Amino acid sequence: MGLLRRKEILEAHDLIRSPLAVQQEFWRRYNRGKGRGQRRATVLGDLTSTVMRENGKRSQSRLRRVSEAWRQVVPVAYRLATSVDFLSGGELRITVESSAAKFVLSRQVRDTLLPGLNAKLSGLTISGIRFRVGPVFGEHQAQVH
């Protein structure tokens, strides 16, 4: 499947700006269900998938809000070197490209980043930020393809 087709599928499912982990899970499920003669879901299964879909939409919406706020509060020099991974229990996980960037940003959490995020996110409170070093996936990479 061509890269352009994959991008179209991600856009159709409103996942083009989702974190890499979300996209990877989507492709795992997408490829597993393709052409495999799946059994028809039961009524309970239909209900569960509907509830999970709605929860997923809310989570994605919340994660988009957090990502937008993050891009506004993170120093310009680090915008392309970071990406928002997920938010769970008030704790935000950010992937950074290098340990040097992780060191600098972790020193700014208490004084700058955390208060800035909470000020931008009305109705949502971030209690902590954890950084991990890894490959960064974000809009700047998505636009290159």
Description:
- This protein has 145 residues and is an alpha+beta fold.
- It has a single domain, classed as 2-Layer Sandwich (GMP Synthetase, Chain A, domain 3).
- It is 57% helix and 13% strand.
- The protein has 5 helices and 3 strands; from the N terminus they run H-H-H-E-E-H-E-H.
- The chain has helices at residues 3-12, 20-33, 43-73, 99-120, 139-144; strands at residues 82-88, 91-96, 128-133.
- It has a 3-stranded mixed β-sheet with strand order 1-2-3, covered by helices on one side.
- A hairpin with a 2-residue loop joins strand 1 and strand 2.
- Helix 3 crosses helix 4 (99-120).
- The two termini are 14 Å apart.
- Mean pLDDT is 80; it is low at 140-145.
Brief rundown of the structure:
57% of the residues lie in helices and 13% in strands.
The H/E string reads HHHEEHEH
Please name the CATH architecture. 2-Layer Sandwich
Radius of gyration: 17 Å
Mind telling me the CATH superfamily name?
DnaA, N-terminal domain
Number of structurally distinct domains = 1
Biggest β-sheet: strands ordered side by side in the sheet: 1-2-3
The low-pLDDT segments are 140-145
Under the CATH scheme, which class?
Alpha Beta
Q: Beta-strand level of the residues, as a percent range? A: 5-15%
Provide the helix percentage. 55-70%
Span from first to last CA? 14 Å
Query: Main sheet, how many strands, which sense, barrel?
Result: 3 strands, mixed
Q: How many DSSP-defined strands? A: 3
